[in-house]
Amino acid sequence: FQLSKKYGPVYSIQMGTQKVVMLCGYETLKEALVNNADEFSGRGKVPIFDELSNGHGVVFANGENWKVMRRFSLSTLRDYGMGKKSLEDKINEESDALTEKLESYKGQPLENTMIMNAAVSNIIVSILLDDRFDYEDPVLLRLITIMNENIRLMGSPMIMLYNTYPSLIRWIPGIHKTIKKNMKEFYDFLKETFAKHKEHLDVNDQRNLIDAFLVKQQEEKPIPGQYFNNENLLHLVGDLFGAGMETTSTTLRWGFLFMLKYPEIQKKVQNEIEKVIGSAQPQMEHRKKMPYTDAVIHEIQRFGNIVPASVPREVTQDVTLKGYFLPKGTSVFPVLASALQDKDYFEKPDEFYPEHFLDSEGNFIKNDAFMPFSAGRRVCAGENLAKMELFLFFTRLLQKFTFQLPSGVSDVDISPAVGLTRGPKPYLMCAVSRN
Prior knowledge:
Elements: H1 2-7, E1 10-15, E2 18-23, H2 26-35, E3 42-43, H3 47-53, H4 63-79, H5 85-103, E4 109-111, H6 113-129, H7 138-154, H8 157-164, H9 166-169, H10 175-199, H11 209-219, H12 230-261, H13 263-276, H14 291-304, E5 313-314, E6 319-321, E7 324-326, E8 331-334, H15 336-340, H16 383-400, E9 401-404, E10 428-433
Parallel strand pairs: 2-8
Antiparallel strand pairs: 1-2, 3-5, 4-10, 5-8, 6-7, 9-10
């Protein structure tokens, strides 16, 4: 982002043996990802992920396999509640369980990573497995620990070096081996789960995404197992679990941290909740009557900026962008942070300022440069699910609690931790009941 100020919105850098192109600023990202959506719809190569997924699943797949898996994911997520009242009810039930868990601390300091991960995990688990885990369940805690460790390790200098010179570093002992060991444990759990689902599969009573996939597997023609094979199921469920748990819970954790830092903003949100919802259960229909809360959630996503560089794209056919010729196969990094901090669209890009999404009358306004879910053909498949979770969890918790710093702590550190996603460093907070 800093280099783009010197070299312009489209420039290339040498990353080890590979030359990659950086795209910066909202206008450039829009021209590439939206106006030339097909040409920028390929997935760029990231050695550690390519070795883990081998082109299966949805996030790191390409070509026809990606198209089939994405279509299946979107239609099945919709079938099992994304954007529907049934899922809204499920999220509200989960936020009640989360409220109960936070109340058990009786206002004492707590570190919220595992709790938030568990609550958000249960939503994607309900879609994938038609189930939920207790917050203390050792299986859930182990899966979350594995995911969190991998997220942390994948942002490390060693893995950046591995992605730059994979053939050189592959044979050296190091954290890439830990990541692969963790993923093997995660995939072994999924394989056991699939076996149970296969035993009890009823074509006329498909209860979740895994059932839907297994039925497709039985029906697939003309080449059985061409797309609906066990490897795709394994990596698709892994992709949806990882992305569905990590990004939303990280965004919420940024949100509570910002409320600790800006108690006056927290108070304004609570006032709006009291005025519009009172003590009732928050519903998605409340959102349009709550412009300030909506603006704060958008600003948490913008300023939290959890996927600053996005996952690389690959140009699927020759294309010219901003006067530059990019041949087919060029690896491209859309720097999403450069849109979220574009000073042509955000008055105070380096500050937490909910007014970025409000007009002078206090009405909510959309901002074109707000693209935390990326854009174009590779836009996040779970965007609608994430928006629902962020609104319902955030309003429910601020309705029930005021978040405060532990006594004796006066400062809030909002510098990010190192990781694949940009999350807050672990912090302590007190959830003080408002009842």
